[in-house]
Amino acid sequence: MPAEVDREREWLKTTYRPGVKQFTWRAVLAGMVIGVVMCLSNLYVFFKTGWSMGVTITAAILAFTLFRALNAARIARAPLSALENNTLTTVASGAGYLTGGGNMAAFGALLMVTVLRPDTLVMVVWFAAIAALGVFAAIPIKRQLINKEALAFPTGTATAETIRSIHAAEFAGAPKLDGAAAGASQSTALIIASIGAALIAWFREAKAVWMPFNLPGTIAAPIEIAGRKAAEWTLAMKTEVVLVGAGALMSFRTAWSLLLGGLLTYGVLAPSLLEKQLIAGASYKAIVAWTVWPGAAILVASGLTSFALDWRSIVRAFTGIAAIFRKRGTGVEHPIEAVECPAWWFPAGFVVLAPLVVFLMVVLFQIPLWAGLVALPLAVVMGFVAARVTGETDVTPTKALGPVTQLVYGGIAKGNLPGNIMAANVTGGVGLHAADLLTTLKTGWLLGGNPRAQFYAQLCGVAVGAAVLVPAFNLLIPDPRVLGGDEWPAPSCVVWSGVSKMFVDGFGALGGEAKLAIVVGLVLGVALALLERFAPKRAKPFVPSPSGLGLAMVIPGSNVLAMFLGGALAEFARRAWPVWAGRYVTPIASGFIAGESLMGVLVVVLKVRGFLPL
Fold this sequence. Notes:
By secondary structure, the protein is mainly α. Helices cover about 70% and strands about 0% of the residues. A hairpin with a 2-residue loop joins β2 and β3.
């Protein structure tokens, strides 16, 4: 009997937990509520930093906190089970990741480069259909990647460990620790950090006449660069703790690379560009209009190089696709098929959703019908590849998948800028949501959950996320002209729009210096990606992160300084108090992000309603 079949039978015998509460209405509804919160928070953070924050671990801790409070108040009779928490985090992840790079980067870029602003309801349907297509695309590869090959899916594994820890009493042989106490202390840290961040945001942004004081938005450094104050080059410290939280959740290598890139961009390159009259002034918008070209080149080149270096994963993905659709010779149904999603769900979902997506591509973005028909199978194949790469590396390669699609459509739909951007949205969105479901399915596999329940949960999540996402965007950013500015840098949107313009219009409109900068950026991106992979282990921490360097060229220097501060504080805590940091850095950083972002959204609502001055 093949080893992979033994693994599935062993899972059914020792890990699967039939009869345990999992897909319950309270878990789904609470997951929707937390998912909406995470969606709003991630939307705010994405347009501030270009980063898409992890959802599942934070959602698991929030769920634990919420139901402890409901149990104490006797509103909920039974404690939340581990598998209910898993269902809840699956719903929340489906909603929260609607803001991911394949969706909001494309939508923001679309609004930056065209006057086109599709109807809200139509865009809700668009994002829901793409996300659901990604969910269905995960079905045929789940058994191959998780059950048989046991790919790591590190975030999914970490989420399972978190849920197992805070619900330790449920599991036989669980570690001898007070999981409830550990979960309670983490939730307390998250709540305190959220309240503190919300207060800072309120006293900085509200600006009501009756308020005794307001916090400044930035703290200027008393130094000059090229005869101008450092703040004019955007080098000041922002008081936005959401940036500190974002920095704390990234690796220290990425954080110090951000600092290096920011100082070189705004302290060295920008003054030189102004001296040569290549930029209009010492403002963020003027500087980034030029630096986006080398920054985007670094990000795209490094993403594509890393993608190519994972060629074995790509080959395994295509080999796995062939194996999935190859007829089984035994004709005997495996017992695990009683709990797995039936194989026919994928083609059925494709038949229902593909015509809708193609119709919207043709009507909304004037993509030729034949080109739209090309996009769907390309997106599904890219989704399979993205899922495997995510399983092996924990990085969903949207930085590679998007530009590949943009390049393809730059050739087959010439001159169509909206079509170029939104075709890449299809590829990136399908890949993102297929990888997201597989990440949560990895959590369920380790906890003994039912895959069908998680599939339903993910569909609930993407439905509510899509319903909230576009109206929230319209409320938060009513005028898309602010995107790419100091308040809303939207670096991923800047990069996507720049890459699309390049593939549609060519290099002709750029000056010689910008063309040279692109070439240098491409070479640097490839070189850094190669060093990441092949440098000796001891040397790798000292290799600059291409993501950090590239991102630093398309966000304000003030954002860079605040994010580096967060990364440095988290690294100091990990070195000085490793046990404490392992337990509290993520909840505190998540609290900073959630508290400030949600207060930021509330302040915008109060201003729109006339309760606060605009």
